[in-house]
Structure formats: C-alpha cells, structure tokens
Amino acid sequence: MAAGAMEIVYVYVKKRSEFGKQCNFSDRQAELNIDIPPNPELAEQFVARNPVDMGIQCSTSMSEHEANTERFEMETRGVNHVEGGWPKDVNPLELEQTIRFRKKVEKDENYINTIMQLGLVMEHCIKQNNAVNIYQEYFDDEEEVEVTEEAPAAKTINVFRDPQDIKRSATHLSWHPDGNRKLAVAYSCLNFQRAPENMSQESYIWDLENPNRPETVLKPSSALVTLEYNPKDSHVLLGGCYNGQIACWDTRKGSLVAELSTIEFSHRDPVYATIWLQSKTGTECFSASTDGQVMWWDIRKLSEPTEVVIMDITKKEQLENALGAISLEFESTLPTKFMVGTEQGIVISCNRKAKTPAEKIVCTFPGHHGPVYALQRNPFYPKNFLTIGDWTARIWSEESRESSIMWTKYHMAYLTDGAWSPVRPAVFFTTKMDGTLDIWDFVFKQCDPALSLKVCDEALSCLRVQDNGCFIACGSQLGTTTLLEVSQGLCSLQRNEKNMASSVSARCRGQGALRLLS
C-alpha cells in the first residue's frame, strides 16, 4: 500500500451489561485459610502392603500414522544451445562483423594477460594427462576370485504400473542395449476372445528413474505380445502383434509404426517370440507363432518374409501337422543353429543352412507336459540350455537327447518364464503363477532355490535379466513391472565356479540326470 493511503478503522460496539462483572485486581498479603496438623493415631492405622503386584508396559508406546503424499512427476526436456555472448551491435551471422570484433578483443591487454594465465593452467593439466592414464585398468585381465559370504538377497528398486484403467498383462520385456537405462514393455491380453472392450493397444518404453509416466508410447495396430530392442541400433524396436503381424518402430520418428508386415504374408496366430539376428546390416530378424511357422524378415522390406520354416517334425512340410511355436533361441556363436520351444512341450533343434526344408529340423527334445514358455542356451556353455514349462525347469545338453540332465521338482504353481544369469554359469531365474521369483544356484544348493522372493500377489508372466546380472525386471498379469536388484554374490563370478558348473554338467551327462529338488 502507498505511504499516503487512507487508514481503515473498524469500531467494535458492545453494551456494558454484556461484559459481566468488572474485575478489580490489587496487591495484598498472603492469607492462611486452614491449617491441619498431623494426627499420630492415623499413622498407627496405616498397614504396608508387601509384596505389591503391579503390571507395567515395558515396550515403548507407539502410534501408527498414514500420510498420502502427492506424487512428484518428472518430465524430460531438451535444451538447444546456440552461439551467444556477442554485443548487441554485432550480428553473429555476419562473418565480417565477428572477425572485426575478435580482432578488437585480441588487441586488448587484459585479453592477452588472461590467455597467458590460462595457458599455464592448461599446460599443467595436459602434462598431467600425459604422465598418468587415469582410465587405465590395472587388473582387467585377472579373473575374479573373491568369494562373498553374504546370504543371497534381492530388493525392489522400482515399480512401473500400466497407466491404463483396463489392466493388461506385461507379456514381454526388453532392456535398452546402451546403458540399460530404459525398459521396453509389451502389454496385451492373451485370453482368446476375452479381451475387454475399449482395451488399449499401447505398449511403453520406461525410463528407470521415472516410474510415474512412460517415456515413449508405442501405438501398434494390434496389441504387442513381444517387443525387442535392436542390439545394433537402440532407436529401432521389433514387435510381434497379437494378430500375427510384425511391426517395427524407430523412436526418432515418433510413436507410430515405421514398418509393418502385410496381413496375407504374416503369421496366422499371435507372434510369441521375435529375435534379432547378428547380421552385418543389423536389420535381419526372425519370429515364431503358434501357427507352426518360423519366419525370417528384413525390416528394410517388411512386406513379406524372406524365408519360412514349418515346424512339422514328421518332415512332410504340412502346416496342419506343424507344432505351435512359443519360444525361440538363437546363439550368435552358433550362427547356423536355432531352437524352437513348442506348445506341445517339445523342443526342436533346427539347422538354417540345410539344403532341403525337411533337413532343417535336426532333432527334438521331448520333456514337458505343456508349452515351453522359455528356452535359452547357457551363455558360458552353449551346448547346455534351459527350458521352462508346466511345473518344472529343466536343463538339457545337446549331447544327451533322451532326457534332461537336471530338473526341478514339480512345483505347486505353474512356471511362466526363466532365464540364465549372464555373469554366473550356475545361476538361473524362474517366475511362477503365485507371484514368486526363484533364483537357483545348482553349484551352491541343489535341494532348494538359493532365494525365493514373493514379488507380487498376482501371477508373474515374464522376466528379463540385465546384461550385468544385477537387475531383474519381472512383469505381472496385471501389467505391473517390478525392478529388483540382487545381492553382489548373485551377480559376481565365484571362485572356480566355471570349473564346478562344468563338472556338475559332465557328471550328470555321464551318470544320469540330477534332480535339483528331491
């Protein structure tokens, strides 16, 4: 308010009769109103109680309070840096004006003195860099031999929930190939003809540091069952749709599909598995579906597949006899081989370079009573591979086709997914329909999982292990993706673990199978 503004005064008016009796306060000496002397007769009547029982509460009194805090939303924004610092009378786009201004500044004595002082500092830093390589790894070639004594453990780092009101299952996960700071999640409803009306078809890419809102929204024509990052180009993603089509995204171009296969040349059933091939161009991939076909694609021309293999183990190339494909496995060190897990519980080993279509199916590994939901070779011993199906997890060797060399007992809950640890040859992970994540270490403990963790109340549908083995992402039936960090002992190579894992596998092949859970 300004200095000379009018003062506002309000007068309260009240009758004197409403005030009550007036109080008059004054100082005076203290007065003794009553004095009761002690009575000895009452003391004689006093009886002491001995012993005395009294209940007391030893624990600290505590109270529970709940507070609903407001969720803090973060958003990533870009900043465009341009050349600045020029005086107003100098146009930085005019070359002559900038050259003239530079010459003027360079003639200034302060400029020369400043450059001389900064030059000495820079010279000192350059000499330091030339003398010591601060990035040198002195013991990079040495194998880790440290044995950790800590008990296996895991903790939840973050939770990413499906932002849609109508919840869908998280059916597939894929880590960003550069730095693993992002996670692509495919969402769909796999219940045939039971998808709710107005259910969203979108899938998302999440930034691990921002669980409130997905960083990128992918908008397919049909819900995605599988989604994979291109290991050679992190902007490109490959998706397998519920309607059988193959879709490709380039995140630099937005949320819409960049390339899409035509309906007539696509799968007839949902695409349950897609894998990128280790090719020079980084554009080749292949897919599998329960229609019994494995198709090869080149995303530069995604209209139709470059090759099709029918999963007919009778080798008659008849689609009506084909086994439905659920999972795929391709190891870059074995470029001519690939493996297919079927919904009939059989694993089919194939040779891509065979001369005839019938010769492409090499052999089969029967062992599960239901669909083979996961199939992966051991990253340290590619001849050994893990399968997840029905109520068991099984480890196989290509040298022993009659039976798996190791397996777990039949669990009470159905197994839904599994994967090897990328850093420890004896460790693998499994998820179950009761919401439990089991971590197995068959060198350390054969009778039970090394760690069993209740991740959520609903069924877990998929999992994916980060390249360094420290982080695990688990997707659930209600679209919730939980990010967990395992203890250092579970993601660090132990002493002689490679030799011990190899000897256990060799013993199982030579003397019969080992049941992990008896």
Automatic annotation (TrEMBL):
Designated name of the protein: Dynein axonemal intermediate chain 2
Family matches, as SUPFAM superfamilies: WD40 repeat-like
Biological process, per Gene Ontology: cilium movement; outer dynein arm assembly
Cellular compartments per GO CC: microtubule; outer dynein arm
Organism: Molossus molossus
Family: Belongs to the dynein intermediate chain family.
Taxonomy, superkingdom: Eukaryota
InterPro entries in the cross-refs: Dynein_IC, WD40/YVTN_repeat-like_dom_sf, WD40_repeat_dom_sf, WD40_rpt
Keyword match Cytoplasm: yes
Gene Ontology molecular function terms on file: dynein heavy chain binding; dynein light chain binding
Presence of the UniProt keyword Repeat in the record: yes
Keywords: Cell projection, Cilium, Cytoplasm, Cytoskeleton, Dynein, Microtubule, Motor protein, Repeat, WD repeat
SMART domains the UniProt entry points to: WD40
Subcellular location(s) of the protein: Cytoplasm, Cytoskeleton, Cilium axoneme
